[in-house]
Amino acid sequence: AVAQAVGARLRGLREDDSVLLEALVPTARLPALPPRSPAPRLPMALRICTLICSSWGARPQLCQVACGVGRAEAPVRHGAALPQGLDSSLQQWGVRQALATRLRVAAEAAMAALLAAEAELSPQQRGGARARTDLLGVDFLLACVDDTLELVALSANSQRCLETCLLADAMGRAVGEPPGDLPRLLAEALLHRAQCHLVEGKDILLIGAGGVSKSFVWEAARDYGLKVRRLGC
């Protein structure tokens, strides 16, 4: 039926037009909670917002996770519901905690793929010599594929996920929860970039820099934009 619909549509398009098909991902219908009133309970869906930063050595690291719960028949959007933590969301809906480990792997893999794609671009294509992604937000939908719960990446952004995660962190501190690692991880990423900026374009004289085992020095110098002059002993 899909092929027939696309074929019929293509016959009416111009030569430079096309048809875009997107996969339909069924939303996982979470178990209904015990009712507090005789009103019927509507199926709910879970959207997971992750914030990943590039730590030392350009290694993706998951910083913060915030969840939003909404009705299953409508998209759960940023700002449509108050964010809540991942652990409390999984406990509330009876979802296995193993999902948290899969979420970390999926989020960090998404940023690693983006960093790998950026590494193949020229400075002009990236937007400048210093342009790079140090902070990334990735939204996931808890979907159901073949009766199995799966994490499906919806989109990548920065500002909306950052706002949501900071709001969740502030709400937690307001009720007495200890502060999370988000401020520290963000500060480390920013300080690392600031230090690289301070040494960029500087002339460094290395005396007795070592042999093959110290080859990482030259790789780091290239990444930092240093002009290295080596003087043998």
UniProtKB/TrEMBL annotation:
Any GO MF annotation of the entry: homocarnosine synthase activity
Gene Ontology annotations of biological process type: carnosine biosynthetic process
Protein name as annotated: CRNS1 synthase
High-level lineage: Eukaryota, Metazoa, Chordata, Craniata, Vertebrata
